[in-house]
Amino acid sequence: MTVNVATSRRSFVKVLAGTFGAATLAPGMALAQQPNAAVGTPPSVITNPPRKWGHNAAPEIYPDPDIVVIDPSFQQYLLGITAIHRVATGFLWAEGPAWSNEGQYFLFSDVQGNTQYRFLWDDRRVTAFRKPSNNSNGNCFDFQGRQLSTEDFFRRVIRWEHDGTMTVIADSFEGKPLNSPNDLVAHPDGSIWFTDPPYGDTLSEGHPDEAGGPTNPQGLLNPRIGAENAGALGGTKRQLPNAVYRWDPSNRLDVVITEDQLKDPNGICFSPDYKTLYVISTGKGPGDLHAGGTGTILAFDVQGTKVANGRAFLDMTVDGVHCGPDGMRADVFGNLWCSSNAPLGYSGVLVYNAQAKLIGRIRLPEACANLVFGGPKRNNLLMCASQSIYMLQVQTQGAAPG
After folding, report:
1. What CATH number was assigned to the domain covering residues 67-393?
2. Could you tell me whether strands 192-196 and 243-247 are parallel, antiparallel, or unpaired per DSSP bridges?
């Protein structure tokens, strides 16, 4: 009899994946079925000793114990014969990942390190791309393959053109400087939607206000020490409330979500059909005169150049643990993959379907700030988690171009 090795292997892994899902949902039952008391427990972020990461670590058993199946529907988006890999480490605060399909590289920011990096797909090298980066935070690529970035230092949104020149998309609204644009997303109509909280108005991620400004009320901080261009091209003092903006190719800039509707907007993305806009509300920022955001995700109906019907979508609470969101991406099936900043065991990524049901979790040993789908088939999830970058191959694709 001839045995198809590949088929047998995949069938075996599929059985393992199903067993792992059952163990996740009913751990007591799964343990009771173990015929051999000597069978070990795969190391994970919650085992003692914990899982090791990096090139010198022991290989992980499949399926990866830190990919947690909450609902059976999550299985279709997983590849059983893969694991979470740490592909780089040593950053101060990794953020703003994006994928360039033309360049075949991931781009991300080390906000506090004032550097943009590229993770090259062909040989997996991570190299400095722009240094200094003006404390760039969010990044994405538009439908023409041009890089868009938010810069905390100059408190603006910029676009890098194909000829190497740079265009300032927005740095002020109604004559007042923006706070510190954070995250952004491109729309097929050519518009750019971005959030403008005040998180970059600090020494570590940009520069504080001039004396008397909301982020430097006593004037004890000198924003120009080590930063001679502070205030030269961006705001010198915070003057605007939090907001979400829409920039039109005609160069018109409009507020689409006000501070009264959503405080401290952070991560932002569209549903695959661009009919829903998701925005993350995070904690109180420097200079805020209110209590701060809610640490939740809100949804809005997109109606042309405006939004309506703002509503709570996700409270980001799992097992009674609040998993603070920062960035997110939608896949082509409408699932929302959300970063989680929470205690060990809950930090990483939470995956919800379009009906706001939690279907899966990806546990990381560090708080996750943001993520993006990329790779030649756009089926690799790159996760920016504090000091490190992690990657997981999945069975779905990102909905946005990059």
Report:
1. 2.120.10.30
2. antiparallel
